[in-house]
Protein: Antibiotic biosynthesis monooxygenase family protein
Organism: Luethyella okanaganae
Amino acid sequence: MRGVDARPAQPADDPARRAAVLATGLAIDLATDLATDLATDLATDLATDASESVRYGGRMILEHALLPVVPGREEAFESAFVEALAIIASMPGFLGLTLSRSLETPGTYLLLVSWESIEAHDPGFRGSAEYGRWRELLHGFYEPFPAVEHFVRVAEAGATPFSDR
């Protein structure tokens, strides 16, 4: 018979029916709690892991520093920087780097470093053991010590120092 339940009706006070209803309710509660917990954990993990990507619309961070090298030490600085490149390039969150020398002020260099997030740079790189070697190689060349700032791209045209990877 189509659409007809062939099982005999069970009274509402039947213990087997009550147990089935209770078990079904517990299963639904358990599944709901589990789904809620998993969704909350996933949302928290995503928010934590991608906080900078969300905050900056998924755009990379560009670190900018003008490096004033002590006059007469430019060649030694450039040699030391070659060794320092391997250090920074190995860091998590590092995307790319350019170092350019000023034509007008030959002792001034422009350092642009692309990072996945500000945290990849600081505390990531700056808090790492590798940063000690970076500092040892380069910081003695600067006078005065450079200021570092972080930027997000808002416009571009033509060739640019970095492309998002």
About this structure: Residues 15-49 form one domain.
